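Mods, move this if it's the wrong board.
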Amino acid sequence: MNIFDYNDYQSYLKDLCLAKGQRSGYKTKLASAIEVQGAYLSRVLARKVNLNLEQAFRLSKFLALTEKERSFLFLLIEKERAGSFELQEYFKKKIETEINNYNKIQTRLSNVKELTDESKAQYYSNWYYLTIHLMAEMDHIKSAEDLSNKLNLNLETVNEVLSFLQKHSLVEYAENRITATDVSVHLPGDSPLVTQHHRNWRLKAMQDVTKTNDDHLHLSAATTIDFETYCKIRKMILKTIEESVKLFKESPIEDVYALNIDWYRM
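Not the wrong board. Structure tokens:
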């Protein structure tokens, strides 16, 4: 069970017990580790009483939680123990922030290539560096000529990009064809190059708007809502992104698709 998938600790503990099975004696072991009676733990799960932080600390040790997971557990318990609506809302916002931070794509990536600042600046200088890097994963893309024809780029530009990618171990030549390595590149959200990265893909989106592709989706809209609704929609978008990333990993590689999402207050 991933504790960051929960907004309350009772549901988390219930699912842990269910996953172990009714006859496993896990609930008894849990109560013993927390140093409470089984009947008291049942009242906790029924939301009639709450654990205190000492009990929560013993629970975190029993579950072998990481430091981040332990701190998140404490937040969940503090929210339930809050004596006023205002304090409960305070902890709710802190919990939402922690969940959002956990769900950031960079926390889910593995085998990420850390480029030098100079190399990052070049990689994110134009849309075609990332596109060519991605297209090297496709079975039907075998050469610089294939990339040139597919992207409508001159061959000299494509070769320059491939040389850069090969230098940084992002692509390689195997069996007389271009292939991508298993190394990926990620740009942290606080990087000064983020603006350029967003600009590259929004300019590409504007170029695509002029085309007549019925299967392409472009939406620009403004609306008036309250902040709570804004936060709910933001959470939905983050969840959609997370689910999309899972689908990306499971999908066969046939083509490159671009996704731009903006949701902000004017």
